[in-house]
Protein: SRPBCC family protein
Organism: Wocania arenilitoris
Amino acid sequence: MPLIEIETEIKADIKTCFDLARNIDSHQESLKHSNEKAIAGKISGLIELGEWVSWEAKHFGFVQHLTSKITEFNAPNYFVDEMVFGAFKSFRHEHIFRENENKTIMIDKFNFESPYGIFGKLANWLFLKRYMSKLLKTRNQFLKQKAESI
């Protein structure tokens, strides 16, 4: 199961960073290049423990649908969203926040498993892990800029 870990340093308080990371509207804005839209469940505002959201987006030239649910939540330090429906066999995305002087360290741990056995593993190696890393980094840069401008 591939693991992507990304650490982003943000010159903003932990609560601001935590709330931006779980804000449905900010998520959509950060990934507008893929036309990511919340279409069911919690479709706006701050998502909470036990809530779910269904997304529609265009990736690899195809419209994709994915539903994830917040399964763990400890404000403002940690939350987890896990896929309950979508193109992956599974995924678990841990969002970790740590204060460091006047900054917040935002850590993403994204574990995913592709379907289709050996073909899925080949896709991970050829392009999927790199694609997902780039997507997360794009999102994080957006959140960093937004948090630092508040």
